[in-house]
Amino acid sequence: MAGKIWLVATPIGNLGDMSARALEVLNGADLIAAEDTRNTVKLLTHFGIRKPLTSYHEYNKIDKAYELTRLAAEGKNIAVVTDAGMPAVSDPGEALVRIAYETGTEVTIVPGACACVSALAISGLPTRRFAFEAFLPADKKERAEVLEELKRETRTIILYEAPHRLLKTLKELAETLGGDRHISLVRELTKIHEEVYRTTLGEAVLRYGAPGGQDLIRGEYVLVLEGRSADEVKAEKEAGWADMSPAEHVAYYEAQGMDRKEAMRAAAKDRGVSRRDIYNALLGTDR
């Protein structure tokens, strides 16, 4: 009988958050694949679990994924853990899950802590719609492209950042999104020094960039940013429509595959007029 790949969430700080089911699965696993075996040994030792360990990380994620799925096909149950939180979320486990499905290996999950969702919940910013970007790309060109995309994002934005890069990232965000954009800087979640610092990007840059400000930066950060306001997006669109004639506006939607009637309806809605107004304007251009 084939085994399974078990994605097991582990605490992001407080070990008391380890679930009874997670402990049961780790105790019953034939092998535990860990992002960093040194960190996982500490976790397992704390709970008195002794199981074979193997490393599964960014630099071996493809070859090792095929090895783990082969072991599962032979009947082994493989538990996969990351250093903290949910495997496969901003984590090489993503590749393992994809390859498991490609090879017909069953994947199941033991849910638990996840830093991005926990930070969102405690941020005080809108939670209904959000965009999780994890760490910004290191490549300069790709990073600029992502920042430009975030500039237009209306959903709440969640980013991860390491302490030594925090100030640089805050400056880039302030330059791109504007210094008045609200942000919650969440650090040390579930730990003794847990902190949620609610401010604006501009104020955050001033705080951490001031003399002694770097001394305030400790631990890994989750940055939760408010998205661009719907009113601002609407105003920008309306300004853009104003530069178009009704005929150009309808043609814009027709170029996207709409028929004439749908395009007229969409243009009328954008401009806050009736479809008959658009129809009459088009009659004038068609004569």
Describe the structure.
The chain has 287 residues and is of the alpha/beta class. The protein folds into three domains: 4-113, Cobalt-precorrin-4 Transmethylase, domain 1 (3-Layer(aba) Sandwich); 116-228, Methyltransferase, Cobalt-precorrin-4 Transmethylase, Domain 2, CATH 3.30.950; 231-286, no CATH class. It contains twelve helices and ten strands. It has helices at 20-28, 37-46, 61-73, 93-102, 115-123, 140-151, 166-177, 201-209, 230-242, 246-254, 260-271, 275-286, and strands at residues 4-8, 31-34, 53-55, 78-81, 106-110, 130-134, 156-161, 182-187, 195-200, 221-225. The protein has a five-stranded parallel beta sheet with strand order 3-2-4-1-5, sandwiched between helices. Strands 6-7-10-8-9 form a five-stranded mixed beta sheet. β8 and β9 (195-200) form a beta hairpin. α7 (166-177) packs antiparallel against α8 (201-209) and α11 crosses α12 (275-286). 30% of the residues are buried.
